[in-house]
Specification:
By secondary structure, the chain is an alpha+beta fold. The protein has one helix and nine strands, in the order αβββββββββ.
């Protein structure tokens, strides 16, 4: 009788123990949003671009994201209009010194009254060669060519927002 009772309680304990472990695993590994850590940031709005002489562009944007994990904006540059298409996984974002996000900010810098500026003198072309290695090439802007710009908000969890409005300008010598 005692052995049967021990087996019964041991079985209940084992089930409870396994359920407890599974609960802890799912709570710690759950992909649900917790404390806004993986919150998808709001897309930036109101960006503008100006072509400058000397084949450079100045991008005007506002730091408007307040998400706790927000760490800046990625800049995307193309030679063709992409409309509302997300550029993530199609084109690489513009990188300064190989890092992302392109423009580093925090939610503490929110200011929708005063735009920030970023001047660019080249854009990125991502090439894959026949050997299988990938190269990121920084190419100077070309006179008379229209370039299109978008930015996305970026988080320290490597989550990006949908893109901003698309703006464009023609490079001038």
């Amino acid at each position: 009788m005692t052995t049967l009772l021990i087996k019964k309680y041991l079985k209940k304990f084992t089930i409870l123990f396994i359920c407890g472990i599974l609960f802890l695993i799912t709570e710690n590994c759950n992909p649900k949003l917790r404390n806004n850590e993986q919150e998808i940031p709001k897309p930036p709005i109101g960006i503008k671009v100006k072509a400058n002489s000397g084949l450079t562009f100045t991008l005007y944007y506002y730091v408007q994201n307040k998400e706790t994990s927000f760490d800046g904006y990625n800049v995307y540059i193309t030679r063709e209009a992409t409309g509302n298409t997300s550029l993530v996984n199609i084109y690489p974002p513009y990188s300064i010194n190989g890092g992302f996000p392109t423009l580093i900010h925090t939610g503490n810098e929110v200011n929708v009254d005063q735009p920030k500026t970023f001047t660019l003198s080249n854009f990125i072309i991502y090439n894959s060669n026949s050997v299988g290695s990938n190269n990121t090439l920084y190419i100077p802007f070309q006179n008379g060519v229209r370039y299109f710009f978008k930015i996305t908000a970026h988080t320290n969890f490597d989550v990006e927002s949908s893109p901003s409005n698309e703006v464009s300008a023609v490079a001038i010598q």
